[in-house]
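Supplementary Methods S3. Complex input for the tryptophan-bound model.
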Amino acid sequence: MHHRLLRTTLCGLLLLTGCATGSPSGPPPPPVADSTSGVGDPLFPLAGNGGYDVSHYGLDLAYDPATRLLRGTARVTARAARALPAFNLDLSGLKVGRVTVDGAGAASSRAGTELTVRPARAVTAGAVFTTVVEYSGVPGTIEDADGSHEGWIRTDDGAVALGEPVGSMTWFPGNNHPSDKAAYDIAVTVPEGLTAVSNGELTGTRTAGGRSTFQWHSAEPMASYLATVAIGKFRVTRSTTPSGLPVYVAVDAREAADAGELRDLPRILEWESGLFGPYPFSSTGAIVDRVDDDTVGYALETQTKPVFPVDRKGTTLDGPTLVHELAHQWFGDSVTPRTWQDMWLNEGFATYAEWLWDEQHGGDSAQKHFDATFQDDASWAFPPADPGTPQNVSEAPVYGRGAMVLHKVRQAVGDARFFALLRGWAAEHRGGSVDSARFTAWCEQRSGVDLSGLFAVWLYGDGRPPAP
Ligand code: TRP
Ligand code: ZN
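Predicted complex, serialized as structure tokens:
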């Protein structure tokens, strides 16, 4: 099963029942960077927090699938953008215990998904400070506007964490917004016999007293929505790609060991590196995990190891989806939209990667995909750069119409300049944050072609333009 298609189908149904929005077009307003709760995201106003910039998360987690109890210690290192008599972290559910700031006890209070921390003494502007939060409880899931589930997803042998757009706050406190990327060290302790997989590289394991700890390190900056942990019985295959990149693949013990399509992972990565430039992280891999219920029918581009859930209805792992999630490692994971408004910079690019794969592997041309997407009424519900509502971020205009924008740019500047643009975009913004305005200005600057009319129609315009 191809979940983005399921999402699109859902969207189609919702559109029929009147979920279309009359959102205004035009460039998004800049986020309000200084509010304490929320960074002013146009679609998720409470996500993230102003006043500081996290550089590192050190998460120490222990999970017992039998009781579903998670115990965690989060060490959050950040730089204060201004004096902070108080600041917020995002956390959904769970019980907060002791909180310290730079080693001194701090007061804390909860309201909704906001955890407010009041240090004994205000953090001074510009200071780097470390907040330690001890917490525990049974982590929950969040139902998104489109009805799909994210957060801490139970499996019958453990759990898997999915965080797009806001689910990471169900398992650790943090600045839960893509504009604040950070390095992570995630250590997970589980009953002996189970494996805990996370982003980045495995730097240590130890077993004592019937429990095993797995330590994972992500040096490259990561948005919180891309953090994952998968706990359960896995078959792990470690290898290296022809270019020497470590590969860590964890497949649910109940699934075929090679999980079919995953054999193509090195070949797809090599092809994508040829198109998009050097792979942006120190390792790669994938997680295939069987989930209990049928609420998660989508794959997610979790950094370095995309997750492919399997449920009773089928698997999310297929060829196009593997190409898609791996393309996100460049577009979304390494080069990350500053707000959810610009989700098309993720999904439009990953969808276009599917078209290009097809075109270069004996399938339909990108033009043919473009034509089909053009004909599809669902593509025209709203402009890619202005989804307008939270449920719209996973719908057809963000995916297919986003890809159409890239195809139009390709037609306008020609193949040679277009593929140089793709590579340059990934290289120049590697590890960083971007938005639509940056993309359009950058394309024009680099190509020397006036693309303002193109973007006005295809990226910002309402409705279907006349057939090209
Ligand atoms: N990003 C996922 C993909 O490309 C799909 C997805 C999962 C998603 N959760 C989401 C999209 C929440 C928007 C919002 O396969
Ligand atoms: Zn995607």
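Confidence is low (pLDDT under 50) at residues 1-34. The CA atoms of residues 308 and 332 lie 17 Å apart.
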